[in-house]
Design brief:
Layout lengths: L2 H19 L8 H10 L4 H5 L10 H14 L8 H21 L2 H12 L2 H7 L5 H20 L3 H17 L3 H13 L3 H21 L7 H9 L7 H19 L6 H22 L13 H16 L4 H25 L9 H11 L5 E4 L4 H11 L7 E2 L20 H11 L6 E8 L2 H7 L3 H11 L8 E3 L2 E8 L12
Parallel strand pairs: 1-2, 1-3
Antiparallel strand pairs: 3-5, 4-5
Helix pairs in contact: 1-5, 1-6, 2-18, 5-6, 5-7, 5-8, 6-15, 6-16, 8-9, 8-10, 8-14, 9-11, 10-11, 10-14, 13-14, 13-15, 14-15, 17-18, 19-21
């Protein structure tokens, strides 16, 4: 490898690492908190079949994260080490893959479009599996290209092993393998059948052992209400572009070279994902489609280079490098300007406040949507106060065995639940801990945090100083010992 490719690779890896570190120690938020609680569960069984939440994370991500936490200890950064490692693997492998099929400037652009994509940056320092899904996609594509270049038994064996491991890190790899099997079938049908069998056996095992126990109707209902999953004009345009490039590829009457086969392998999962999203089988939200981003980028740049490289090669090289630098600069500055190192939900600060101020005779009510965050920081920082009482309404998706359907909340349910958890005639301080994220209250159909304060106030317990944290609130309510104060249930 000459100096420029080495420098480009080093720069990409350094940026990936730096952007991953930017915010790696910030507070976990709800989506990360339940994953962290499952990773820190006492047994592997409780991790894979987390009692309180549907376990949608793939097994390889969970096992590696559990190992990292056991080695490093419970901390915000420890839960994010594996996602950052996956991001580095994805960045390095994508550059290596792009160099095999594109010119150096185009390879730099392909890598930059993924490495500096806002969603990729976000999930390089989030305790979620999505950077691992990107790594699984890129490694599978790299194994495919190696095989297409030299279809030896060794290359095929490497492809099969890569595909099987990728499925344990990324369930959506199943979409990608459809195109891989198609590419193999027309050159070596027997090997295509072997790869199909290995992938099918792996998926069947994952389904029988893990996936079927971690699904529920509420999960698909949540996907349908996810505003980020809607087909935006940009997303529709991307699907149309993939269709055009696929038709062009199939209509061109030339031999199918490894480069052309790779384009088809990249196009098929894009189309399958679009169809699955329209059918309601799989959401098209930004994080859920992140795994297919390398496929889309490579497909577009392979087609663009076919058109422009022979026309004005020097201009093409300059243009790709300028676009790569601009894309990187805009998104790096956006990370800094938008303070992406700050938490989405500041459970760490809220928990510290509760730990310092809640007295032994106080009553602590934790909303169902704040339960996972409170529990993980109890494990990390220790809780010596009174046992928390958890609410049982307004559950986010997807708590196991709970009604987490959209719009399930109403004042009567919340009132009954508050009567359940607050003793009649209680005198002292009640602490309310609940989320304030507007999207959550829109999902459940009622702002239960405001209703909690109102209902406790109606009991003769006026609020003390309201403590606001990022998308969370701690509200102390002062219940005096006045015998004339109402102690009737809330109605």
């Amino acid at each position: 490898m000459s100096a420029w490719p080495r420098f480009s690779l080093a720069a990409l890896l350094a940026c990936t690492f730096a952007l991953g570190l930017f915010g790696i120690g910030r507070s976990l938020w709800l989506d990360e908190a339940w994953v962290a609680n499952s990773i820190a569960a006492p047994t592997l069984h409780d991790m894979f079949y987390y009692p309180d939440w549907l376990q949608t994370s793939p097994p390889l991500f969970l096992l590696l994260s559990r190992g990292a936490v056991r080695l490093i200890g419970l901390s915000n950064a420890a839960f994010r080490v594996v996602p950052l490692a996956f991001a580095l693997i994805a960045a390095g492998s994508l550059f290596s893959l792009s160099r095999r099929v594109l010119s150096l400037p185009a390879a730099v652009l392909a890598s930059a479009l993924v490495v500096f994509h806002p969603a990729f940056i976000e999930y390089s320092h989030s305790a979620k599996q999505y950077s691992g899904e990107v790594a699984a996609t890129v490694l599978t594509l790299l194994a495919v290209v190696r095989y297409l270049e030299i279809p030896s038994r060794r290359a095929f064996f490497f492809l099969v092993i890569t595909a099987v491991i990728a499925l344990t890190a990324s369930y959506p790899t199943a979409f990608l393998l459809t195109g891989v099997v198609a590419a193999l079938y027309f050159s070596h049908p027997r090997r295509a059948i072997i790869l199909s069998g290995a992938a099918a056996a792996t998926l069947l095992f994952l389904w029988a052992v893990l996936i079927r126990y971690n699904t529920a109707p509420e999960l698909q209902a949540f996907w349908k209400t996810d505003a980020d999953a809607l087909f935006t004009p940009g997303l529709i345009g991307a699907v149309v572009l993939v269709l055009i490039l696929t038709v062009r590829l199939l209509a061109t009457r030339t031999s199918m070279t490894p480069r052309r086969w790779l384009q088809l392998v990249c196009a098929i999962p894009c189309l399958l994902l679009a169809n699955a999203s329209v059918s309601g089988w799989y959401p098209a939200s930004q994080r859920m489609r992140l795994w297919v981003l390398p496929c889309f980028v490579l497909l577009c740049l392979l087609a663009a280079e076919d058109v422009f490289r022979n026309w004005r090669p020097q201009s093409w090289g300059r243009l790709t490098l300028v676009v790569a630098l601009l894309f990187a600069a805009v998104n790096i500055s956006s990370q800094i300007r938008d303070r992406r190192d700050l938490p989405e939900e500041d459970y760490a600060s809220a928990f510290q406040t509760l730990k310092q101020q809640v007295g032994p005779s106080d009553l602590l009510l934790v909303h169902a949507a704040a339960r996972e965050g409170f529990r993980i920081y109890s494990s990390m920082q220790g809780w010596s106060g009174p046992p928390p009482i958890y609410g049982n309404t307004g559950w986010p998706c997807c708590a196991r065995g709970k009604n987490a359907a959209p719009g399930q909340s109403n004042p009567a349910k919340v009132t009954a639940d508050m009567n359940r958890v607050i003793p009649l005639g209680f005198a002292g301080r009640i602490w309310l801990f609940y989320p304030t994220r507007p999207s959550h209250w829109s999902y459940v159909g009622l702002n239960e945090g405001d209703l909690w304060r109102k209902l406790v106030w109606e009991r003769g317990c006026p609020p003390g100083p309201y403590l606001a944290f990022k998308n969370l609130a701690v509200s102390p309510m002062e219940c005096d010992s006045d015998p004339n104060r109402s102690s009737t249930p809330i109605r």
